[in-house]
Amino acid sequence: xxxxxxxxxxxxxxxxxxxxxxxxxxxxxxxxxxxxxxxxxxxxxxxxxxxxxxxxxxxxxxxxxxxxxxxxxxxxxxxxxxxxxxxxxxxxxxxxxxxxxxxxxxxxxxxxxxxxxxxxxxxxxxxxxxxxxxxxxxxxxxxxxxxxxxxxxxxxxxxxxxxxxxxxxxxxxxxx
Length: 176
Hints:
single chain; 176 residues; alpha+beta; Immunoglobulin-like; 2 domains; 10-stranded mixed β-sheet; 2 helices; 10 strands
């Protein structure tokens, strides 16, 4: 019986030192869109006050619906740029941005260009022109955790090679 009490007491003490943080499950990396704005307006620079990203399945965007805010999914803007993150984007999109000059401008219809899409948006007097930005570097959905695991594996292989070389040269010198 004393062993059982000791074991129970030890088990309860260990429970005190375990982390109590909540764990959150995630589905991994999510596709993103980054919009940078450049002006072709003369005079005062207009800044972004708010915006909506419309998602469409039809090429003419006749079925346009705003990207919903669901957990991490959503569309947000600051004064000079906008970004979107989603569980998955539709094939076609359209922007509607309100500016500090009081005007609301709509963009042309554009397609999703990749997992991490980047777009240049030109601000005209009455509308917006969205153009996909080409990148020579492919965008892989690597997370920071994945890069850390790869770095640790490379370090482990390097240490194993170094130890193997040391053992090889020590044995070789003893044979002579």
